[in-house]
Amino acid sequence: MSFTIAISPHGHSQKSTRVIMRLTLFALLPAVITQCYLFGWGVLFQLSIALITALISEAVILRMRGFSVINSLADSSAMLTAALIAVAIPPYLPGWMTILAVAFAIIVAKQLYGGLGQNLFNPAMIGYVFLLVSFPAAMTNWQPPIAHSAQVLTVEDTANVILWGKTKENQSVFDLNKFADGTTMATPLDHLKTELKQGNQVLDIIQSSHFIDVGDDGWRWINISFICGGLFLLALKVITWQAPFAMLLTLGLCSAIASTIEPQLFAGPMIELLSGATMLGAFFIVTDPVTSSTTYKGKLIFGAIVGLLVFIIRHFGGYPDGVAFSVILANILVPFIDKFSQSRVYGH
Predict the structure, then answer these.
(1) How confident is the model at residue 179 (pLDDT cuts 50, 70, 90)?
(2) Measuring CA to CA, how many Å separate 143 from each of 107, 213, 318?
(3) Interatomic CA distance for residues 296 and 307, integer angstroms
């Protein structure tokens, strides 16, 4: 006879926290490689800055709290938070902004709540939202894919742009973020939202060469790389299927219904699912065992709420992508979701 213990603080995985964190870091490798291929050396610089900042911030705050620094750093949770932020921000974002975001995520969102396992909000998403609210222009100013870039930066120029704001030729990141025809770069979702506000229709926008370039040659492959990492985690049972499935199904259904009713105003499910941070959120954020629901039913509810909020924010809010805001808002509801989705008490 057997029964399932499905609510915290119990877990089913026999893997240690250190193993889970490192497997998740390994699952991010396809996305890191894809972003490096598409956007150049900036991704690796951002990743390095984020990792160093996370380790230093965690060590300092742990020492101040009187905890063992070495043992706590060895669980790799700070490194995972840093890596998630690094793959979500523009590759040529000024380095000091990356430092601020990672330090804020580790010190405020994680450690001030009590450390690993006690934080209410996902630290990586808090760090990302901190940047998005504080520096919106810099956070939406992405380098075009190398295949469509007017200039490909060397390693030295990449370091100069990130650390000092200019290349040796005195070019800023805004000077570099242009196609050869002078069109400034934007993510597909940002471009779509901007064009819709100007009265253009969805079909005309997505058939334009600009949208095809950044969508097919950039963000679609990035999201596919996150899917590969997510399937790896599912295969090893590091994460469960409920939250990703519910988030993607809800977002896809909302998009399908809206695009059927108003095809001039809403893009189809394929664009919604393979743009922005959709797959990063589905497989690496809503599956966070600390800040998402712990019950099977709760994970389905949590994922569905995130998917619905992503659709609402993207189309009716002020930001082109809504994954980070949706996750944070859904994190607030987790205690309520867990309370009313617990398994029936054994023997009751």
Answers:
(1) very low
(2) 30, 12, 22
(3) 17
